[in-house]
Amino acid sequence: xxxxxxxxxxxxxxxxxxxxxxxxxxxxxxxxxxxxxxxxxxxxxxxxxxxxxxxxxxxxxxxxxxxxxxxxxxxxxxxxxxxxxxxxxxxxxxxxxxxxxxxxxxxxxxxxxxxxxxxxxxxxxxxxxxxxxxxxxxxxxxxxxxxxxxxxxxxxxxxxxxxxxxxxxxxxxxxxxxxxxxxxxxxxxxxxxxxxxxxxxxxxxxxxxxxxxxxxxxxxxxxxxxxxxxxxxxxxxxxxxxxxxxxxxxxxxxxxxxxxxxxxxxxxxxxxxxxxxxxxxxxxxxxxxxxxxxxxxx
Length: 298
Ligand code: NAD
Fold this sequence. Notes:
Its EC number is 1.1.1.31. It catalyses: 3-hydroxy-2-methylpropanoate + NAD(+) = 2-methyl-3-oxopropanoate + NADH + H(+). InterPro entries: 3-OH-isobutyrate_DH-rel_CS, 6-PGluconate_DH-like_C_sf, 6PGD_dom2, 6PGDH_NADP-bd, HIBADH, HIBADH-like_NADP-bd, HIBADH-related, NAD(P)-bd_dom_sf. This protein is elongated. α1 (14-23) links the parallel β1 and β2 (27-31). It has helices spanning 14-23, 35-43, 68-79, 96-108, 121-127, 138-151, 163-191, 196-203, 211-214, 238-254, 261-276, 284-296, and strands at 4-8, 27-31, 47-48, 60-63, 87-90, 112-115, 118-119, 130-135, 152-159. It has 12 helices and 9 strands. The protein folds into 2 domains: 4-160, NAD(P)-binding Rossmann-like Domain (Rossmann fold), CATH 3.40.50.720; 166-296, N-(1-d-carboxylethyl)-l-norvaline Dehydrogenase, domain 2, CATH 1.10.1040.10. α7 (163-191) packs across α10. Residues 8-14, 31-34, 37, 52, 64-66, 70, 74, 92-93, 118-119, 121-122, 236, 240, 243 line the site of nicotinamide-adenine-dinucleotide.
């Protein structure tokens, strides 16, 4: 009989991740409050359960939920019902403090828990090539590893509980800030008569080089696969970048980091999210250009 895995949160990311576990031979006990998500999971071969508690028949329970408040709510609901020593794996992107609190609740109730947020987006979830960054006890990480390797292409144990979330927000803070800096630089180049291609040809091999430029160039042309060439369809939506930068800002403040750029990037993406949350986060260059044209014309 195949091993059972509980899976809660069958959204953009969770649905393909659960489908990959099914394909690898696991029996996935899947729950989501949204009927369409449950129907999709059934088509993907999962065993759909009608309540969250229905997932606790498994010895391992994975969550892929929108925020930390929900993760804590779901943990509180499941912990009493779960079999002793159940392994809880939270793959959602949530506050470091919430991740630690969730793991503490789980261990206090006699279970094991790791945080294992991901990067790689919906494409990575579908292809089973996500990067997992995990936090928790080494033995618990080891127990989770075979499952993470089904859903991911790279799995890194970053440290103690919450440190997986720390890696996630540190990376995304750097990405958000570098996309803003790159976009301001590109708009300055435009004003100075520097073509996008010339900018790319110089900077992509010079000291200003970054992933944001060489893989994800925010203007059409130099990198044909970047969302800029597809009218800024995500990709990685601005709403998600704003969320992650908000989590980074919380952590910067909570830990007394003398941050300026990280906090500013969070503000910039929060403002852009008010109007353009559904566009790719690299569309920030269009906002900088529009505001430059308005302000420059005054
Ligand atoms: P989503 O909103 O598409 O999916 C979340 C799902 O959780 C929804 O289907 C929702 O109905 C379900 N849900 C809500 N409450 C629930 C409950 N009590 N029990 C079970 N299910 C419940 O979000 P997503 O894009 O799949 O993202 C999930 C997580 O992954 C988020 O934390 C996000 O920040 C993170 N993430 C997303 C991406 C991405 O590109 N979408 C990339 C990396 C990380």
